[in-house]
Amino acid sequence: MIKAGIIGATGYAGQELMRLLMQHPECEVEVISSRTYKNTNYDQVYGNFMGIASDKLVDEEIDEISKKVDVLFIALPHGIASNKISSKILENTKIIDLGADYRLNDLSVYEKWYGVSHGSPELIEEAVYGLCELKRQDVKKSNLIANPGCYTTCSILSLMPLVKNNLIDKGSIIVDAKSGVTGAGRALNLGTHYTECNESIKAYKIASHRHTPEIEQELSGVTDSSISISFTPHLIPMNRGILITAYASLNKKYTYEDIKEVYEECYKDEQFIRLLPEGVFPETKWVKGSNYCDINFQIDERTNRIIVLGAIDNLIKGAAGQAVQNMNIIFGLKESTGLEVIPAFPI
Amino acid sequence: MIKAGIIGATGYAGQELMRLLMQHPECEVEVISSRTYKNTNYDQVYGNFMGIASDKLVDEEIDEISKKVDVLFIALPHGIASNKISSKILENTKIIDLGADYRLNDLSVYEKWYGVSHGSPELIEEAVYGLCELKRQDVKKSNLIANPGCYTTCSILSLMPLVKNNLIDKGSIIVDAKSGVTGAGRALNLGTHYTECNESIKAYKIASHRHTPEIEQELSGVTDSSISISFTPHLIPMNRGILITAYASLNKKYTYEDIKEVYEECYKDEQFIRLLPEGVFPETKWVKGSNYCDINFQIDERTNRIIVLGAIDNLIKGAAGQAVQNMNIIFGLKESTGLEVIPAFPI
Amino acid sequence: MIKAGIIGATGYAGQELMRLLMQHPECEVEVISSRTYKNTNYDQVYGNFMGIASDKLVDEEIDEISKKVDVLFIALPHGIASNKISSKILENTKIIDLGADYRLNDLSVYEKWYGVSHGSPELIEEAVYGLCELKRQDVKKSNLIANPGCYTTCSILSLMPLVKNNLIDKGSIIVDAKSGVTGAGRALNLGTHYTECNESIKAYKIASHRHTPEIEQELSGVTDSSISISFTPHLIPMNRGILITAYASLNKKYTYEDIKEVYEECYKDEQFIRLLPEGVFPETKWVKGSNYCDINFQIDERTNRIIVLGAIDNLIKGAAGQAVQNMNIIFGLKESTGLEVIPAFPI
Amino acid sequence: MIKAGIIGATGYAGQELMRLLMQHPECEVEVISSRTYKNTNYDQVYGNFMGIASDKLVDEEIDEISKKVDVLFIALPHGIASNKISSKILENTKIIDLGADYRLNDLSVYEKWYGVSHGSPELIEEAVYGLCELKRQDVKKSNLIANPGCYTTCSILSLMPLVKNNLIDKGSIIVDAKSGVTGAGRALNLGTHYTECNESIKAYKIASHRHTPEIEQELSGVTDSSISISFTPHLIPMNRGILITAYASLNKKYTYEDIKEVYEECYKDEQFIRLLPEGVFPETKWVKGSNYCDINFQIDERTNRIIVLGAIDNLIKGAAGQAVQNMNIIFGLKESTGLEVIPAFPI
Fold first, then answer.
1. D247 and D99, same structural domain?
2. Is the pLDDT of residue C315 over 90?
3. Where would one find coiled-coil regions in this protein (chains A, B, C, D) (predicted)?
4. Is A133 within a domain?
5. Are D198 and B188 inside 8 Å of each other by CB?
6. Do C164 and C117 share a structural domain?
7. CA angle, corner D22, sides to D21 and D25, nearest 5?
8. Do A347 and B288 touch (CB under 8 A)?
9. Are C266 and C188 in the same domain?
10. Contact: D237, B197; criterion CB under 8 Å
11. Chain D touched by B40 (CB under 8 Å)
């Protein structure tokens, strides 16, 4: 059994991780920690765990915790993990960081977009960007996984085949993204007060969301040129789910079949990527509660653009599920262990 | 492996059953049928099953199907199953009927509340009312299980200890029930059109809902007298979940602890019943996606009433989950097999 | 033109009042105040007022403000108004208090349920409980109106004819109430964080909600005996609306028509009370955005109970609308002035 | 008083129109008609009108009706109005058609996108596209107004200043649109069944929605070249509201102020267009229940794109409100008569 610890177990991503790990057949949760709720029983923080996990949350003593576990998941706001993780800790345990601190290869890009200085720049190079479908070979060998952002995962998986195969004008990419409110976490905020976001939609962090450089880095990584995109996230009055609608100009005329073939070639062995049949498009409801990413596209012949749609459960494939998938890879388990759940509906 | 069939696999309860059975370690779904969608692939009807279940739905030929399976789940509107099931079919397979046809012992009560004549009254006596926590000994021996209604399950489990132990005035029971919209099924109806039930609440079938006699029958069954209740269901703008708020006059002054003890005694061995700590009350969100029934109560000292609250996931403990629990009992499996899932949140 | 001021203009009730008063043909808003947002333009606090009200919010200097206005609306949490209002202020202006401080006639009941001491007990006797349909003669003559609570308004209007005409067992009243989330206000709270209350239902303050003594006081007031009720509020995942489902035992057998006549007699001249046709029951959607209270009932013949349903828009008839109605009464305007709006749907 | 009739008074747009017209100080609704509900009282079809409008709905005898009214609003699915309207009818009354039949100038474009043949092509030329802010001079003189589509209104108003002033690459326009579910009407459909669209988001009619040619026609009309756009609508789990997020490449480097000036110049006299302050972006909640269109934009300097956001209430500025605005123009009333309502919040 893999012994796991969770730092930041009381945020939504931490909680989803707790749920997945407790149900994972090869893993047991050894330590859960939370600064805010230390010394509280877990089921007092999350009533769904009533009678299932009444373990006490401990303080965030990462050094201590790292000695007790084979893998340590970190689910903290950006800027904190990089100050807590060190080479020494990486000797004790493997780290899967659900935060943003190790996702960007370029320190200056990180510091520009996040507005903080990085606590352990020397570790950036060691870190592997854990988008499993693209990086599983590197993940296997790493002690420090930067688990991708939610918008990022969905955007990259949806666009990668087009970029890699040079089918689109790389300067033309626009990602219009929509997320449920869990993406904003459990911290109180007027914008996520029920009556303020229910029955309304808005865009936010227009042209300035921090997942932008992450998407650009990874898309650039599958081609030979540097890619800039426009990225606009929207807040949707629903609990879970991300849908991205991506637009790009095709380099020449292609048929649906031409491009379908390219996607199939890229993803033919991917259990968690579902390429939908022609004319059937992703809806977040079909992936809820699962690690799937559903993808399909439409060619707009009048403008010769391609419109790609991707959907994930933001807390699973966009956070905790992918973190478990990374753990499975690292420990040589079947990649889908503990993740083979059928999406629930209507839920 | 238990071979299972589902008649009516494309309603919401049928679909949830499909999901649970496909994930059940000791069961495999052999046949799925639907009149409306016969010859269609299952994942064309429910996109969550895309790439997971593309089996073709067959017509509702119950005779044929009953020969192929060890257990046959029936999820049809009332009045149909009783015309399809016969002694002969019960020789072929075990039946777990999620509909109402065999729930009421008294034929005249059935015909009065449902307004139809019963197709196989001779089988009523054979049928066992499959509320697992109350009837598991009978379930074990039966070939024909009447799986309880959703409101019923939650109401009976919440009130039973009070009635059985004679703590309340049996003429004083009022159940004010609230259900999510999946309770109304997938059939189109103005009342469940999104913009007609979103952002509103209403009561319906006031003093006339068909789950009333079912609750009365089972509560009467644990005591020596005939019980009549007032039952009012409400439609809540959410997908899943039932909350019942039940009121009754206490027979004398009791403390919280007095009554807590009675509940604990009744349910101490029940894995799926969670008696919440004092002052913590059921919320449907904490049981979503699971087979749990959460219960707690408050004594209103000023009026000497008890207010009992119970919450379930209507499609699981209120339908498909309990059906699986019944299957587990019948086949001698651990009762929680395939049902030990932690409720998901926020979902 | 009546000059009005609003203390606490940035809570939801204050904001709804602002909207109603700005659209009122005989009134103009002279001063708006807010402790939290003083010196901020109103449309920066509420974007719906963009370009419509960019007035600056001033501090809550009630003495100063009271000199400038003909009527002063106070929309503050309980316990504050009673410390701000004095006889001197009542010489300057008329007060309509949307809070709870002057609603209960009995000081000890107030202090017991609210757990604070009252700041101006000498004014309690002067205050008139402003449930317009019951008290309009008293309202006319008063300088200090205690505007009723939201649950209270709906409960009293729904039950009053039964109590007044002695049709029910006065010890048998149970009110099961359901409210949208605006009832909890704009202050941040985990319980009203979007992802915590969306897609779920819960009861809260069971047998202890502060609107209980208010309902009891007013129902007792229309009969000769002291009435105790059981009251359970529930939080519904929707923005607006209150539905109450009230249960009581009938004193003898009555037909629907018998009781309908009693309601019609009570409310025949009431513009804002809509007695629905037999078999049609209140739904909160039909009153949204309006000052209406929709009422109907069903007799449960099997138990000889009556089940009364009432629906209001909690921010209008349950708060700001009724406050305006009170203002109209005080100033001798047509009672419906500024309130004759058709409910909007679907909204 | 203007005498108005409504053909198709029982759809959502027809109902909203009914509400606006009944509250309009210079208009009275003389006839309401509905094929489905003929001979039914209006308040039996829409409970919000209970006690307010119990008029009987008549059959759709447009000839008869046209003789009785000064203006006739038609709110029918596309393809019907063009078969009902004739020159003769236009001699009797003015027509404001909320449907699509007369919106497109080019018959072949209409027939291609709508897949039906037009019933009165000879009237197309007479019809004026009633986007008030652009066409009020023409509206004044016309007997036949084609009231714009909901997505269209919001898209054109948001983009027009950029196109007209030649600030963007006209081949680069992408409109990613989001609508509440009222946009789909009251007709039953699996896609708008509560539990099928609640808690989910999807795109639909990708690159094929019929509002596309309408947007293209009107944007082309303010410049010298033919414009093609990519348009993708999404269904949002909320009742009302449209948000459009439009992307375009700027022709050169501009500052926020440069472009703000252009918008201000275009809309400085427009009461219903609110240009939000820098950094404040449209949210559908701020326009609900009103005729406003809120607009703002952000320059994405890294890609030199502009991202324009626009929000309207789809049933008001996107349908019934604009229809009333057109009526006001035609009859020489103040354009905002009956429309000067403050948006309601939270509702």
1. no
2. yes
3. none
4. no
5. no
6. no
7. 80
8. yes
9. yes
10. no
11. no
B200–chain A Cβ distance below 8 A for any pair: no
User: For B104-134, how does the pLDDT look when each residue is reduced to its tens digit (9 = 90+)?
Assistant: 999 999 999 999 999 999 999 999 999 999 9
**Nearest-neighbour CA in chain B from A63: distance (Å):** 30
pLDDT at position B224, please?
A: 85
Name every chain B residue with its beta carbon within 8 A of the beta carbon of A12.
Answer: 346
Judging contacts by C-beta atoms under 8 Å, the chain A residues touching residue D282 are 202
Q: Is position B132 within any domain?
A: no
- Is D345 a domain residue? no
Confidence (pLDDT) at A76 = 95
Express each pLDDT in B176-215 by its tens digit: 999 999 999 999 999 999 999 999 999 999 999 999 999 9
Last residue of a domain, one of C61, C93, C126: C126
Q: Closest chain D residue to C279 measured between Cα atoms?
A: D44
The CATH number covering residue C101 comes to 3.40.50.720
Residues 282-311 of B with CB under 8 A from C: 282-285, 288, 298-303, 305, 307, 309
pLDDT tens-digit map of D98-131: 999 999 999 999 999 999 999 999 999 999 999 9
Average pLDDT over residues C216-227: 96
Q: Is the pLDDT of residue C224 over 90?
A: no
Question: A195 and C188 in contact by Cβ < 8 A?
Answer: no
Residue span of the structural domain in which C98 resides? 2-126
Q: Are residues D155 and D288 in the same domain?
A: yes
Q: Is the pLDDT of residue A224 over 90?
A: no
B189 contact D CB<8A: yes
A210/A168 same-domain check:
yes
Q: Render pLDDT for D235-249 as a digit per residue (tens, 0 to 9).
A: 999 999 999 999 999
**For position C229, which CATH number holds?**
3.30.360.10
* Same domain, residue pair C238 and C184: yes
Domain count, chain D: 2
Residues C307 and C168 in one domain: yes
Do A53 and A158 belong together in one domain? no
* Domain membership flag for residue A258: yes
